[in-house]
Amino acid sequence: MSFVPLPAVGGDPASAPAGTTPGSFANAPKLAPGPAGRLTFSSPDAPGMPAPSDRTAWDFLPDGWATGTDATPDSARTFEQADGSPRWVAVPDGFEPVTQLESARLGIVTPQMTRVAEREPHLSAEQVRDEVAAGRMVIPANTRHLEYNLDPMAIGRASLTKINANMGASPVSSGTDEEVEKLQWAEKWGADTVMDLSTGGDLDACREAIIRASHVPIGTVPIYSMIIGKKLEDLNIEIILDTLRHQAEQGVDYMTVHAGVRRAHIDLVKDRLIGIVSRGGSLLAKWMLVHQAENPMYEHWEAICDVLHDRDVTFSIGDGLRPGGLADATDAAQLAELYTLGELTERAWRKGVQVMIEGPGHVPFDQIEYNAKIQRRLCHGAPFYVLGPLVTDIFPGYDHITSCIGATSMAYHGASMLCYVTPKEHLGLPKKDDVKQGCVAYKIAAHAADVALGIPGTRDRDDDLTRARAALNWEKHFELSFDPDLARAYHDEDLDVDTDFCAMCGHDWCSVRISKEIQEFASGKADGFAREKVLKSPALNAEQRAILEARGHLSPDQIHKLAGKTKTAVGATEGHKAACHSDLADDDRAKDVQQKKVPANVVELTV
């Protein structure tokens, strides 16, 4: 038998070879300092894609700095990079690093870099340092926020894909207490960072409360605070710098600054279907038209860098001209701004400030790879942070799904962080459950991309869950799932005993049970996963009960029985066979109940 040859494969996303599939089809991982590492955890380029930049943050040093890998000049500092190669750095006399980027350039491994490596064991602290020094990774950790509860993390393509949750009070909805509750809820469901986008209420108090309560980095869009209670036309550089300085002192870890929207770009959006959808971008466009002047954030970029530098605030350079619909994607305005974002990246690196770049929110699926790879080239590998993107515009209420499809692809092709979209996107301010739905959808997207990229160890939990599923070990199955309460509740809605089959097929037609019983197969026999007998499932907890109540498929009485059942109630005492639906039917009727769940012409159950 002959097979079509497999393509060259990259790293295996499992810690140890397992199963019958090869490793990732992504490029082979190459963690290396400088330009040599620019293809680490990347997708193969389709024909016509722009090549990655061969420049890094090392090429954009502050005045008075120099570096090299050859003979070391007198008075230069030297250190060994993660791959064993030497590097020297010369800096002005008396210089002391403030930012993670400056420390990395001096070869210093900070406590924050060490913590990142602890959280991401496929990276060493020295590799984290080298990626930060190259500008391909950021550690958003305001020195003030580090005094509170912040647990340092990293955003970059060498690290795991991160997700961000947006929240914030508006003039018509929510308040500080609710936003802090949503922050904690987002952290529970896996948000790696949170952006406070409040435009109403007491913005200062809300931001302060969120920062003090959070364990994850907090981002903001400071222009919202710059114009609250003021006329847009009165915005000036003094207000801009004062607002940035105040938020930096509060502890904001990264800030969106829309300095890439320039006066010359405004003509490029005139024929768009939906114009400018970025709030910051539209405000600054109006300001430029009123004053017939250049964007003050662009003109005073170095002064803004100085403010962010003093508290090590990371730039999330805003895409004020991002497309708001498929028809406007990858147009002249978006790309013109992206060229400017590349320029601003270089200028920020010269000031020692960390940078990531924001990307588009509505992109047809076929244009996603190009969007990721043109950013990679123009911004020299600075981390790419994208909203979605949505790959279709006609599913309001389901945009957490339409966008996480695009997010998976964008992360595979190079994005480092994905800003979630909730079911309320385009419709209103997300509520608590919307936050959960958005986080879960984006955890799926991020994890799927990490497995595809071959990041070591990312498939371990998937393989373990497969082993548990093969062994029909339901407790282990639920324990390994991302949302155990949901999985258990859905299972018990149909079959509230942990049998050696599930309600989808029934006993006779269960392929997993059959495979497990074939002696020649390894399936279902993994050490630590096999179980000897059918076990009684535990009673529903409060969370699981609420899930089934919300679904509405079982009566209140049935749910009450599932939540209050005992060992005797299910007939699963030692030596007794448990009925499939023992809370809803006695042993003699268990077969009848199961048959009602499965059409008679599909399966005939045996006792």
TrEMBL record:
Keywords: 4Fe-4S, Iron, Iron-sulfur, Lyase, Metal-binding, S-adenosyl-L-methionine, Thiamine biosynthesis, Zinc. Residues 1-52 are annotated as: Disordered. The keyword 4Fe-4S applies. Its cofactor is [4Fe-4S] cluster. The keyword S-adenosyl-L-methionine applies. Zn(2+) binds at residues 362, 426. Its EC number is 4.1.99.17. [4Fe-4S] cluster binds at residues 502, 505, 510. Binds 1 [4Fe-4S] cluster per subunit. The cluster is coordinated with 3 cysteines and an exchangeable S-adenosyl-L-methionine. It is an enzyme of class 4 (lyase). Pathway: Cofactor biosynthesis; thiamine diphosphate biosynthesis. It catalyses: 5-amino-1-(5-phospho-beta-D-ribosyl)imidazole + S-adenosyl-L-methionine = 4-amino-2-methyl-5-(phosphooxymethyl)pyrimidine + CO + 5'-deoxyadenosine + formate + L-methionine + 3 H(+). Belongs to the ThiC family. Catalyzes the synthesis of the hydroxymethylpyrimidine phosphate (HMP-P) moiety of thiamine from aminoimidazole ribotide (AIR) in a radical S-adenosyl-L-methionine (SAM)-dependent reaction. This is Phosphomethylpyrimidine synthase. It comes from Alienimonas californiensis. The gene is thiC.
